[in-house]
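Hi there,

I know you've been waiting on this one. I reran it after we fixed the sequence typo, so this is the corrected version. Both the input and the resulting structure follow.
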Amino acid sequence: MALEPTETIEDKTPAAPQKPLRADAQRNRDRLVEVAAAAFAQNGVDASLEEIARQAGVGIGTLYRHFPTREHLVEVVYRREVEGLCQAADELALHHPPDVALEQWMQRFVDYIATKRGLSTSLRILLTTNSALFSDMSGRVTLALRRLVEAAVADGSIRGDVDASDVLHALGGIYSAPDTKDWRDRSRRLVKLLMDGLRFGAKAS
């Protein structure tokens, strides 16, 4: 994917500390990230920045003030998706039985994968310049999944001979599946099948 004229990933000059955004500016930024996440998941990383700005209700100049390059926007969207996924693990564990929390989190993981697939080209570019970002983010996702799996194993609602790495490996197969129109529906069905397998033979069944 060719970078747009204003886009570059070469400038590594440390940025000066930024002042907190005004409330209206923060709302615009949050809305841009939300719309961009949906656009990248649906249309890939080449989604029109002008259309993202339009759907967010701002001008393209506002988008570029917050996100000077497409890669900057991609990185912020990626961080948002990981942080949301990890926060969801804590919230689901608080309000649901362990196996239900795990299943609902894995369904949320499907949405995360959809966004990540859409970002794949730019994420590969970012990987060459910011590998620490990916090791940190992937580590957080793994820890979130591990907490959910270990809680479900401990209360006997899933079988005890699996660990988080097994589940993550199975979920990785969803990421590798062909990108067809029914990909999300098929992925959600696969999560249900995976949970059936995790519950089979569990102590609480």
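Quick highlight: The chain has a mean pLDDT of 83.

Best,
R. S.
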